[in-house]
Batch of 2 targets.
Target 1
Amino acid sequence: MMPEKQTETKPTAKYRSQFRIYVDIMSVIQRESNEAKPTRILYGANLSHDRLVKYLEELKALGVIQETGTDDKIYSLTQKGIEFMNNFRRVESFASAFGFRI
Amino acid sequence: MEFIAFVIAIAIANQALKGYKLSKEKTLLYLNLSFVLIGAGLLVDGLSSLIVFLTGARRGFLYPFAVGYTIYFLAQVVAYGLLVYAYIHQARSVAGPTLVAATPLLFFARNAFTELILIFLLAYIATQTGINYSINKSTNSMLVFAAFVCLSIAHVFFLIFTVAPIFYPFAHIAQLCGFLLLLAMLLRVNRPR
């Protein structure tokens, strides 16, 4: 589902929408028992550091994730984020039943 | 039976719209539009049949039946055409315009020509959903596949009905089964986790 590398020289790499990247980041956090360090998210969501920082800021601004800790930053889903992921799973399951990917 | 199928079609359309609002995925918008059209067609067909039934099929009241069936047929062709387009669009194949413009023809009753068009479109969709089921093997995919197989069978029965009227109730039962299978999928998707 996830592209192996996102380089411009690899034409077969699948384009990931911003929405898909948000979902991938939130899925990693959820998979890590809702407490994920940036390194785990970076590898799990297959993002560069700069892009990860950008997307984490955007997700925080949307109120779906929160940051805790001072030296070691930990990210977790807020209640809004958990509800979003539950809705997303339903939609994904529905679309998948018809054979559509989202 | 049309009214039950109408309610299920609108419920499917609503779920697809929710998905589109969340993900902005165009295929879900096509799915939404498709089931809105299927629902609208079923409603019009159901209402026109009801008018004919209530008026005892008097001569002057057969016109609403003809108009109802024509709307139903055109709505289904566009709806299933949209679904076919959605599958083609997703497959990144050549996605030329697959829909035909509404023609001024009026179909007074179910006929072999209209049913063959619907069977062709439904067979394509059933094949796509069958391929999807063979890949992911999930119960929901199986339900959608079975639903479109039932809808295809329903239209085969509608086709046979043009020469053997005994198949009319079987066609409606198969159509209802198809929509009930879609309802089962919808309930499974929305069950609490």
Target 2
Amino acid sequence: MRKLKLLMLIGSLFSIQLLFAQTKTVSGKITDAKDGSPLAGVSVKPKGNVTAGTTTGLDGSFNLSVDAKTKVLVFSSIGYSEKEVTISDKEIVISMVQSDNSLSEVVVVGYGTKIKRDITGSVSRVGAKELANTPVTSFENALQGRAAGVFIEQQNGKVGQGIKVRVRGSASVSAGSEPLYVLDGIPLITTNLSSNGATTNPLADINPNDIESIEILKDASSAAIYGSRGSNGVVLISTKKGKAGKSKIEFGYFTGTQKPTRKMEFMNSEEYVQLFRLAAIGAGRQDFLRGLYPTLQAAIDANVLFVESRMTRYSAGNTDWQTYKVNTDWQALAFQDAPISQYDLNFSGGNDKTIFFMAGQYLDQKGIMVRNGFKRYSGRLNLENKVRDWLSVGMNMNFARSLNSRISNDNAFSTPLQITALSPITPAIDPRTGQTSGALDNATGLPNTNYPVYYNPILSLENASYGTAVNRTIGNVFANVTLMKGLTFRSEFGIDQLNQNEESYNGRKTRRNNGGATFGTGFFTADQIINVNTNNFFRYVTSFKGAHDLEAVAGTSYQNYKSYNSTGTARDFPSDAFTKLVSASTKTDASSSETQFTFLSYFARANYKFNNKYLFSISGRYDGSSRFGKNNRYGFFPAASAGWILSEEKFLSNVKWLNFLKLKASYGQTGNAEIGNFASRGLYSGDAAYGGQPGTRPTQIPNPDLTWENTTSSDIGVEFSILNSRITVEVDYYQRKTKDLLLSVEVPGTSGFATQLRNIGKLDNKGFEFTINSENFVGKNFRWSSSINFAANKNKIKDLKGQVLGGGVNKAKEGYALGTFFAREFAGADPANGDALYIKNTLLPDGKRDRSTTNNYNLAEDVEIGNPNPDFIYGFRNNFSYKGIDLDVLLQGVAGNDIYLAGGQYFAASGSNGFDNQTRDQLKAWQKPGDITNIPEARTFYANGVNASTRYITKGSYLRVKSATLSYSLPKSILNKIKVDRVKIYVRGQNLFTFTDYIGWDPEVNADFSASNISQGNDFYSAPQIKALIFGINIGL
Amino acid sequence: MKNNFLYMAIIGGLVIAAGCDKKLDTVPKQSIDELNALKTASDVQVALIGTYADFGGVDSYGGRIFLNQDLLGDNNELTWTGTFAGMTQIKNKAIPKDNGFVANTWLVSYRAINDLNNVLSALDVLPTQAVKDRTEGEAKFIRGSLFFDLVRSFAKAYNDGTPASNPGVPIVTTPTRGITEADQRPRNTVAEVYTQVIQDLTDAEAKLPTTNGFFATKNAAAAMLARVSLQKGDYANARDAANRVIASAIYSLRPTYAQVFPASAAQVVNHSEDIFAIQVTTAQGANGFHQFYSPQSRGDISIKAAHLALYEAGDARRNLFFVSGGSTFTGKYESRYGNVHILRLAEMYLIRAEANQRLGTSIGATPEQDLTRIRQRVGLPAIIGPTLNDILKERKLELMFEGHTLHDIKRLQGTVGLLPWNDKTLIYPIPQRERNVNSNLTQNEGY
């Protein structure tokens, strides 16, 4: 080795000698076109020689010795348009223009980076500028509408809760469908650890303002290097680094208010009483028909008496309901004033040896629903040092603490929006006690058991708490060794550690919703996850004969994920002042558990470029996972892609308007391993204690053949830019064919099991995406740019071996998109008697369906009634700037999907399903023979027409003004006077306007308690999304 | 220096790679492999206890297997104001094939059956004949009980047409080791299921000890056999089995009716009248009746005046009802951690009385004597020379809201409103999910 080094040294000295004889020196200075400030760190390279070159210094200047034959220098810097300058005798003084869509942009890919121009796969990039200062809890929200083919949906407007992200459609029925998130090389913990039936989002621990860029690897050629976890796409998050130059101090602050995007309309007292009077008569008719009373009048009388007694009960025991004196708007009480503030302070800088980035953030966000809130403190230090010219080491370190004050899942009586079920005739404060309605029954001295109609969620606001506290440390250390020219070795060791505590206390006044516990109950759970990951890989870059560029990467990766949980519950506390379990007289339960998975992987990739216009890439990963049985532990996931930059060809060199044209195609395989950690084994679990004695039972039927879900993807695309690169367009068409679906297959229940995980079935996604970036107008002072992204994805289940999966209205069924809604077709009220009618839809011998109606739900058949998957999604961004004023507007939309308003069975039930307050449209219920209406007769507790049907399906398309920011940057003249580098003030609206025909709260919805791959697009008292208006300032020193 | 680092890095990388292969062998911590689950006597005992956990699940013997049948058979005596749509459908006798509660009762019951079939398959590892017998007896008690409630919920009543050809439910007596063609089980006939039930319970009675903690005993099996025989219309066997339980003299009526159903915030243990009860503790199990009948919980079922009017003046059972917030509730389920009473001595007296009356016998005691025991406790005078109707009325009031309503209506060929006892809407549908995966299962009429 030593000899080799010596040889190399001699060789290089020799070559320098040679160079010396034929070189010339070029010098110059680079500035930012925007404000004339010097640009440090700009790469300066002779055209056609990627290995030579230098970077500009702190003052923007450079000195470069180049081959005498060199005619053109290429200047490039992240975030700026690449520039080519012909060498003359003069010093090169140029300014560079900032750009979001430059071809020279460096894009992060798996285990490396690539210039956008040379990418042959499909990668979407969203930069820091687009993410910055978004008033949201988690960064995925800020991505919404910004990346083609990436569908992002927040379940509801509760802060810190689950967000669904689908890259090019859902590729799995039973296994996980969320992309793999990798932060600075570490696969992140995304496990939902919530205990209350509504998912939380572990990604909310990350400060969005720490992020430099997010790359989403969408096709197989870019994702296959993540092998068995690439099928759902890979989201690479890179955090900010310092830049050599003057150290910077940046301070950011915003504050504002938040409101629900939309509300629903419910009946007032008068309408409520009227409808339930009708419902009593309707129920009386039914009772009589069933022979429960001797005469119709007797039946009606009995029901009217019953309803009136209930009206009196819900009217706090008096007859105010008869005069509609009390008219409580319960919905308004579910919402709260919701301020949001965020403080950022960061320092960055460096010299030629060391760069650093230090950031701290505090976010204080109230939710729009009462008792909901989120706070996050986070700190980061990214440090990198060039120890030797051949060795650089670094460390990225992030700690965060997030505190989420949470509310119950959508299916709980205590969730704020279920308050809308309470009667408008019920006063908020019970006049008999002067306390919140439901808090006290004078007769018993305990909380009421059946007043108001349901448990009053306000009691949980006042007497209960549920807190989720997370301490998160994400860090990695790395070393980059230059072994020889072009060959580097990188070693990364990262830990993502998550400690979460959930603690809740339900006080005495929550008794009705608390299993009758008179003296309160408490709950505590602690989770600890240690996720260790190490990557070790070589990278080799070379170019030879001026025409061949080769880059190769090869290495290994190992991940070990361990998770521990312990939990305790208790009841009977001395008073509500004592909320810790230590004070409880009865500890009702305690448990602990542990689980683990490991991945061991080998990966490699080679990129080859010929003549700067023919691009080839192959990659592969050999993955092993503990999740699969011994026989199928390893899988191999290869991919290949190619690109052709036509604009470099002679035959296009005369086409002046065409600046760039690339065709590309990729093909490859990825896998999905997102199943339970021990899903292949036959298991007996020890969770079957009985009467205080330990017990076991069989809980899982073995499947030793269980293996990866396999997705084969192909992608073809074209990228071009025209009119002086003012307009750039990217178009992709893809197909993703998934086979061996990891399916929870329903099995005969007589076996003692309900499902078995098997590799069965096929599912396809195909679609097309385009992105257009356009500099519509570039003037001296005024600039207008637009960006459009559009994606249409079609999901289709090809084969499930004839099975139909899904418990609710959403089904997974062959020939249909995943989660397609199936239910009876509702045909309104029978004009003769007010019965809910359904279209039979039974298959006739001639293959048609029987379109006659029936009032017997069982005689009608389920048919496809809608699709929760959008036909297409889009984003449209416009940016206008004039001198220091900047207006940025992002529209985001989803089209062609349907939503099942599952709560309708209670609140749009013509008073036939409980005493729930109803939406105003229910007043149109059938009343007398001959009435033609879509609302069946009101009949208390006869559930007339409330079973699943098209009655509750509605269109879910929407278009939103996702964000609109108006900012003003102080001009240099003022800044110089006050000795500040930058000052920007802005006002920003998030989810400012929503245009939709949806009849529920907000069309971006999926009931949190039931959300799954199959169960999508359900609205069940789900909190509407948050609309925010903020004012902010950024100061740079 | 650089070279050393290079070597270290490469060697380190290889070590990491090679050392990890073993790391793919992770083991579950909360579960064990099924192959290791039934190896010792202790393993089999805990698996038997696990069977009780599923058996006593809230969808099965923990309550709903009875409670939902009471809703289905309600004769305008109770008011349902719940929000569980599946139960509203049952109450309205408009049960869709995919009703989730119906499916869960099926699934949980068969899960318990598979649990116990596993236990029965491993009797060989048990050390003594006595332990073997007890274990076998407990398992068969549970199997017999479950098949009985499955067949009477999911199939035509025994007295409806021809039980020898009416489809019942699939009988499963072997543990599931894998899903195969054999799991495409057709429905056995009603008669076959009854035969299996009686065989299991007879075996259980023979093999079980008289005392066995709160687990199944000889008398529990006999008591269940009495119930089954009565449902079948086999009065002699019903009478004799009930008589065996009473004659064992292990059980006694609680002094007052209220003491049978103690209202307590704390955990309640079995009492002298309990022949068998599903255990509910603060940590395990749940009382499905409490959940819906008690205003301390959901309070979805309140009692109509029509029912209250059935009681004679002075009937202590009438006093157990109470008013909360303007509605009347039964006081039977005011204990959150109260055991679910499955078989209690009063039922045995009533079975013996009814059977003796029908057969004109006085085995054990005269019908009048048995009836008097029940009536005296609740402060009612004896009926001299009671008629069958007197006994049946007593039975209804004594056992109300305990899961007998619909089955008695079917047995006695009564009505539910205008519906005759054998109306098809009074039988559960075979769950749609089950028919989706088992083409050999036929659906009940009307679904």
